[in-house]
Amino acid sequence: MIDHIRGTVCYKEPNLVVIECGGVGYACRTSLQTTAAVGGTDAEAMLYTRLAVREDEIALYGFFSRAERSCYDQLTGVTGVGPKAALAILSDMTPDHFALSVAAGDYKAFTKVKGIGTKTAQRIVLELKDKVAKTAELSGLPDIPAAPVGGNTEEAMAALLVLGYSQSEAASALRTLEPGLPSSELIRLSLMQLGKNL
User: Thinking of the domain 4-63, which architecture would CATH place it in?
Assistant: First the structure.
């Protein structure tokens, strides 16, 4: 119904941005990432929106990008994941990280989000894996890396997992490297790359 709102930020706090448009202040519930991306008070901003109508409330949700809104739509389509849980996930994950975690089957990345248990995390990955792959394909995004298999790359992957990196983080780092390198070199280069992303 309402695709987006463009106007002046008149108030913001964690998980809430109020944008004044045409003399009306629209209170949009947001992820922490969207709140951070929106400028300060009196700045011009545009949020892509979703209107949620329930028996007890009508709420407007705002997103800094169409990609984040798409992730929200996918998450709220999962059994047992409501708007609050979806915003909590998107507060901790960028859309790219979200897609990478789902595509790699890395449910543990979701359990790091407050309020998301193992069963819910596994359900998110199970229900969204095909949708995320199809969305990436339709939008012309580069292939989302799965866990690499075989030889030195597999050894490097195992080492990165032991060091505490998630499967999606390790796969993302390793996919940019030459698989013929020795495993120790793959680990060293991956750690350098992962360190830059922190």
Answer: Beta Barrel (2.40)
